[in-house]
Amino acid sequence: MPVEILGMISHRETTLHYKSPKIFDAGYLRLFAQTLEQAGYDRTLVAQSSFWPDSMPLAADIMAHTQRLKLMVAHRPGFVAPTMAARMFAALDHLSNGRAGIHIISAGNDAETQCDGDFLTKDERYHRSAEFVQILRAIWSSDVPVDHDGTYFKFKRALSEIRPLQQPSIPVYWGGSSEVSLTLAAQHADVYAFSLQSVAKTRDLMLRMQKDASSHQRRIAFQGGVRIILGQTEELAWRNARDIADSLRVQAEARLRATGSAVDQGSAGGRNDPAFSTKKGTSNLAKLNTLSDEGELIDGRLWTGTVTASGGSAPPAFVGTAEQITQSMMAYYELGVTGFMIRGFNVLTDVVEHGQELIPRLRAAVEAHDRTHRAA
User: Fold this and answer.
1) DSSP result, 349-364
2) With contact defined as beta carbons under 8 Å apart, do 129 and 187 qualify?
3) Is the pTM of this model over 0.85?
4) pLDDT at 280 over 60
5) Spelled out in words, what is the top-level CATH class assigned to the domain 4-224+336-375?
6) What's the pLDDT tens digit per position in 105-114?
7) b vs e for 39-52, b when ≥16 Cβ sit within 10 Å of the residue's Cβ?
8) Which residues neighbour 150 within 8 Å (Cβ) at sequence distance 6 or greater?
9) How far apart are CA 307 and CA 289, in angstroms?
10) Which of 117, 144, 281, 322 is paired with 53 by a 20 to 30 Å CA distance?
11) Does the N-terminal peptide bond of residue 168 adopt cis geometry, omega within 30 degrees of 0?
12) Residue 273's pLDDT is what?
């Protein structure tokens, strides 16, 4: 099965040592998108929060300046009527010649979602997201008017003139690692997006979700996210890793002095209050801290030093040569992880390096694996 390589785009220049004074840089956004495409990435996440530029106009601009790059557009249900969102994403799918994807984000921090007027609890937001996805699919597939009277949405005789170009529908990605998120993802998502843990824990997670999906007569695909620290030799990779950890530690200490929290708020425009962190209160952050408790090195290659150095802000990273990291990623592919969201710490230059060193090797390894299994 072909592997999907995903990135995460930025709307302004950011590295370990520099953050652009511009809050929004359209030129950099387009450069980033074109660099991802040239490097061989299949798709990129366009993120969303209560204080970043909205994901939908960014997605439209990215589509206009690329030819092949697909999108995973983060969307928070509840702010746009699902009937309207169905038409928006269907139009985006046509304008991009079938490159749209929607990433359902229910958000983990009540205070941050309240900035946009959303006062539901976290569990309520997940249940609303499930209802939202059901409506999207109903609108995308119906040629007769649709009525709906649910817990969070109510409408009569909704009908969209435009349907998605992709059939049977635009792919629905789903994030979140809480119990309610896992249960609802198995029922409603096409692709479940999560951060890679150990091979054993990833296997357990996938088996649980496959079982839940099967009970609803569904199948679900899996996308694992991980940071990458490459070196031409293993020694150079670890030297890079230690340098990155030192930088993350300095940043975490500075945040602690400035805000009282070492956690990166993921913010822009001066939003430095820890109460509004997009990571505050998320189960994923708790899992990152649990990972660091398992030791500095998991399965020989997944390094948690980035987690401890950043105060829980940065996820673990694969450290090694391109060949070594490919071997580690193949262990997850063999479990059934068919998508990998990979990022470095100096994001744009790392995209180029991934395109030159890692992505071709990973694709070749996947093809060799699949040929062997077909022959067997």
Assistant:
1) HHHHHIIIIIHHHHHH
2) no
3) yes
4) no
5) alpha beta
6) 998 788 889 9
7) bbbbbbbbbbbbbb
8) 131, 135
9) 7
10) 281
11) yes
12) 57
Tokens read off for 239: 């030297």
Given a cut of 80, whether residue 372 has pLDDT beyond it is yes
Residue with token string 């359209």? 26
Residue for token digits 């990623």? Answer: 329
Which of 31-45, 230-244, 304-318 bottoms out in mean pLDDT, i.e. has the lowest?
Answer: 304-318
- Tokens describing residue 370: 């699949």
Q: Please report the pLDDT score of residue 293 as a whole number.
A: 62
CA distance 354 to 36: 10
Q: Is the Cβ–Cβ distance between 194 and 184 less than 8 Å?
A: no
Q: Break the chain into its structural domains and give their ranges.
A: 4-224+336-375
Q: What is the pLDDT of the chain when averaged over all its residues?
A: 92
Residues sharing a CB contact under 8 Å with residue 21, sequence separation 6 or more, in sequence order: none
Pairing of β 302-303 and β 146-149? unpaired
Residues 41, 60 contacting (CB under 8 angstroms): no
Grouping H, G, I as helix, E, B as strand and the rest as coil, residue 296 is: coil
Rounded to whole angstroms, the Cα distance separating 350 from 344 reads 5
DSSP 51-90: SSPPHHHHHHHHHHT-SS-EEEEEE-TTSS-HHHHHHHHH
Do 163 and 190 contact (CB within 8 A), yes or no?
no
What separation, in Å, do the N-terminal and C-terminal C-alpha atoms of the chain show? 15
The CA-based angle 347-103-362, given to 5 degrees, is: 50
- Tokens (6 digits) for 163: 């349907």
**Quick one: tokens of 257?**
């002095």
CA dihedral 174, 291, 278, 223 (to 10 degrees): -20
130: Cβ contacts below 8 Å, ≥ 6 apart: 184, 187, 188
Q: How confident is the model at residue 270 (pLDDT cuts 50, 70, 90)?
A: very low
Residue among 363, 361, 372, 245 at smallest CA distance from 313: 245
Element (H, E) at 6: strand 4-8
What is the C-alpha to C-alpha distance for residues 232 and 207, in angstroms, rounded to an integer? 36
pLDDT digits (tens, 9 = 90+) for 71-106: 999 999 999 999 999 999 999 999 999 999 999 999
* Spatial contact of 44 and 63, defined as CB atoms under 8 Å apart: no
